[in-house]
Amino acid sequence: MPSPLATPPTEKSSRYSDTTEATRSLSRMRRLTLRISYAEKKDRFFRNGLLLAGLTILCLVIAIFLTLVIGSIPSFRATGIHFFWGKVWDPVTGVFGALPFLIGTLLTSFLALLISIPFSISIALFLGEYFPPGKGKNRLAGLVQEAVELIAGIPSVIYGFWGLFVLVPIVRNIETQWHVLPYGVGIFTASLILAIMIIPYAASLSREIISLVPDELKEAAYSLGATHWEVIRYIVLPYARTGIFAGILLSLGRALGETMAVTMVIGNTSAIPTSIFSPGNTLASVIANEFTEAANETYLSALIELGLVLFVVTTLIHLIGKRVIRQFSTT
Amino acid sequence: MERPILEVKDFHAWFGTHEVVRNVNLSLHRNRVIAVMGPSGCGKTTFLRCINRMHELTPGARTEGQILLEGEDIYRMSPIMLRLRVGMVFQRPNPFPHMTIYENVLAGYLLNNIKLNRNDKEAIVESSLRKAALWEEVKDNLKKKGTFLSGGQQQRLCIARAIAMKPDILLLDEPTSALDPISTAGIEELLQELKKNYTLILVTHNMQQAARVSDDTAFFYMGELVEFAPTRQLFTAPQDQRTQNYITGRFS
Amino acid sequence: MQIVSIKRLRRRELRSKLVRSGVLFFTLLTLLPLVYILLYIVKQGIGAINWSFFVQLPKPVGESGGGIANALAGSFIIVGVATLLAVPIGIASALYLSEHSNGQLAGAIRFCVEVLVGIPSIVVGIVAYDWLVKPMGYFSALSGSVALAIMMLPIMIRSAEETLKRFPTSLREASLALGVPYYKTIIKVLLPCSLSGVLSGIILSVARIVGETAPLLFTAFGNPYLTTNILRPMQSLPLLIYNYAISPYDSWHQLAWGAALVLLIWILLLNILTRIIIRRWSVRY
């Protein structure tokens, strides 16, 4: 049979559009009526499905929160509010005080933040101001951007592994030279590895914020004779200040909840750290280390309570950071 | 006289509390081009979108009164059924970017899972594209994406897509407003061809276009149907002062 | 009258240049350890990788050689099940959000997605333990998949919503005006047009969680043997890296380095795939 496209068009279009047209469309409609009531049912079903998925997310978060709260009840019954400033964590005798881990967490996170800030701001300025990738042909900037993104994707456990085998010996050397106990592992090492881990994240956040500074403002400053540095110093940084602050906050949230890398290099002791070189534990690392060993209910519950504290603190910090950034980028 | 294809009775439309269309009464007949014209914001597009119930997609939209398609109340029909019978062409050409030209013409069938055999498909594609005066230009490129065409060609593709469904009525919402003058002329010429098979309702803000292509003209002002008459009569001897003012350019 | 003296101007320009060099210096200084980490892993890991590395089980302490077949298979299974769990809910809720972008419920859901983004991975582990491991009585790959799925959801939802929101109203109307029901408009027009974004969002979320260890510590737990039963403990690449890294045996360290390299390459490939999909399949409106 010849292809219909090869037949003369007049013949075919007449075959298609003559009187049969009316009957055709009529019979089609009859067939469709059935299908349509079916389609409307499916429509409703589909809409409800989407709603259900959305509600699942809502319930998921509520369920996570409730799970942690309920799991913490036995511990709260046993220790009460004293949990938060109890200096001793001794599962053997059933004494659970979270203070060593709270201090360990805050110390490592803030130290990491302190170390990372100059570096991440440099990268952000490099990519956002000096060599913006995408504007013109800028190989170097493109390369830096790619590298930063790639490195942001390295799993935490690999950072920890590297830290254990490269960073720990280096820190041990430093400690020997400074005549402190050469553990190698400890708060300082954990802070270093944390700093390395949050730099890519903080840098890409800050870069986005810096690139939001309107060109008109910068051009106005240039037209008044300002140098590039003066534009950055007096226009870009002040304008982006709140955004960069929010970026730091979000990085802090990351650092607080970071588990694997810290667990591998912090030394895992439940004593209150006496210096930044002493070994310690963070909220996350103590959970990672002891959760599967928790032999009785109170012990397990105390660990869950640590998890609850971690969850509430990181979530609050994260939400505040996001809110500030949203406000910043809408103005 | 034959039964009108579309009757509008005491029709009102609101968005929230804002009444956009007020008390419209109208009867339209087969195989004519009806122009709906008026200044911007006069409710003409809303009125058009009520005819295939597209206005329902806007939250807060509400209507009162009746629109009868061949005697059947469209607000008692399934909107899906209605839209199969009333085609629409939009302001901006909107071919589906993930479909080829061939698939775009058949989109109404493909998306509705209406099974066609290969011969029918090819017959529909060719005849629709011919009617849309696009066949000669695209017959060798049917497998290309529809978005590769020029604006005017895209709009004709959208017309082909609409008429492939063999609608009773074809709604055109300022179909040339995004096109250059040459493409516009092409589309206008096409409308004359199309009215042999279809009833066309054309919304336009362009008086000259209404005068050039339409058989009847409805003039809307502030949501009201001010005047409805054969085009020649409306432009030469308007009954209403407001129509007079509009066509003489007192306001736009 | 001259307000700015030439001398002062020179000094200002010099300072500007100094800062510029400073930024350049700091940037490169930062990249140094970062690139060093990558190179170090490649250097340490490449020696471990050969055919038997992929097909054999780890050997007991003392014997050299052996492979990570159990961890590779386990990672595939755990991540695969997590993806199967997360994709339907993730895509459907992204659709809900993009379809009701201004609704009150959508706002609440978006807030929850934000909470999920910020949740520490170890906490997700605790929750999955409480939901599945405790009632079932033993560690299982399934509980690990649930934990990972929870972590995938927010990444997937946000990137899918971003793409879906860009779908123009005009195309939605074009489809509805042809009498196409709503659900078919979504499935046959909106999703195909947004496919590249949705798909790359899914792959991106997989890339983010293949290396997650903390949620698996007390869910999938690890297993020295090859198993495909998702109701039992299962090994995975990150778990193997962790357990062997902190062990005192050189041969295990060697395996861990190899596993780390494999994991990195896996993540890299997923990232490249995302880019290819975005470049090739993107629909321009």
Question: Which key phrases capture this entry?
Answer:
heterotrimer, A: 331 residues, mainly alpha, MetI-like fold, two-stranded antiparallel sheet, 11 helices, 2 strands, B: 252 residues, alpha/beta, Rossmann fold, 6-stranded mixed β-sheet, globular
Overview in brief:
The complex is a heterotrimer of chains A (331), B (252) and C (285). Chain A is mainly alpha-helical.
Task: Summarize the helices and strands and which ones pair or pack.
The complex is a heterotrimer of chains A (331), B (252) and C (285).
Chain A (H helix, E strand, L loop, with lengths): L8 H9 L2 H60 L9 E2 L4 E2 L2 H32 L8 H14 L3 H22 L9 H25 L3 H9 L4 H30 L2 H6 L17 H8 L6 H34 L1
Antiparallel strand pairs in A: 1-2
Chain B lengths: L5 E10 L2 E11 L4 E5 L6 H8 L9 E9 L2 E2 L5 H7 E4 L11 H5 L1 H5 L6 H14 L3 H4 L12 H13 L5 E5 L7 H14 L4 E6 L2 H7 L2 E6 L2 E7 H6 L4 H7 L5
Parallel strand pairs in B: 3-8, 3-9, 6-7, 7-8
Antiparallel strand pairs in B: 1-2, 1-4, 4-5, 9-10
Chain C lengths: L5 H41 L4 H5 L13 H31 L4 H15 L2 H16 L4 H25 L3 H9 L4 H12 L1 H15 L27 H9 L4 H32 L4
Helix pairs in contact in C: 1-11, 3-6, 3-9, 3-10, 4-6, 5-6, 6-9, 7-8, 9-11, 10-11
Q: What is the element string of chain A, with H for helices and E for strands?
A: HHEEHHHHHHHHH
CATH topology tier name of chain A = MetI-like fold
The termini of chain C sit apart by 58 Å
Placed side by side, the strands forming the largest sheet of chain A appear as 1-2
Taking all Cα atoms into account, the compactness measure Rg of chain C is 25 Å
Low-confidence stretches of chain C: none
The helix/strand order of chain C is: HHHHHHHHHHH
Largest sheet of chain A: 2 strands, antiparallel
The number of helical runs of chain C is: 11
Task: Compute the number of structural domains of chain A.
Answer: 1
The fourth-level CATH homologous superfamily of chain C is: MetI-like
Given the structure, what is the number of helices of chain A? 11
CATH architectural group of chain C = Orthogonal Bundle
